[in-house]
UniProtKB/TrEMBL annotation:
It comes from Lunatimonas lonarensis. The lineage of its organism: Bacteria, Pseudomonadati, Bacteroidota, Cytophagia, Cytophagales. This is Arylsulfatase. SUPFAM superfamilies: Alkaline phosphatase-like. It comes from the Bacteria.
């Protein structure tokens, strides 16, 4: 995963994820919930294939 401070680094040259593990964990948890629920808004969860079918989402099962 990658994390950038777009205000100070708009060209995304310095990945700051290692220096902000709490923020990285918070965002990873939020993204995982969005994917598992099939949505990022309130409402009934929607069907999606999830990490079992998307190789790029294997980090969700780690």
């Amino acid at each position: 995963m990658q994390l950038y401070n777009l205000e100070n680094d708009p060209a995304e040259r310095q990945n700051i994820i290692e220096s902000h593990p709490d923020k990285a964990h918070e965002l990873k948890s939020l993204l995982t919930a969005y994917i598992r629920n099939g949505r990022s808004t309130l409402g009934t969860p929607q069907k999606n294939d999830g990490p079992e079918f998307w190789d790029q989402l294997q980090w969700m099962t780690e």
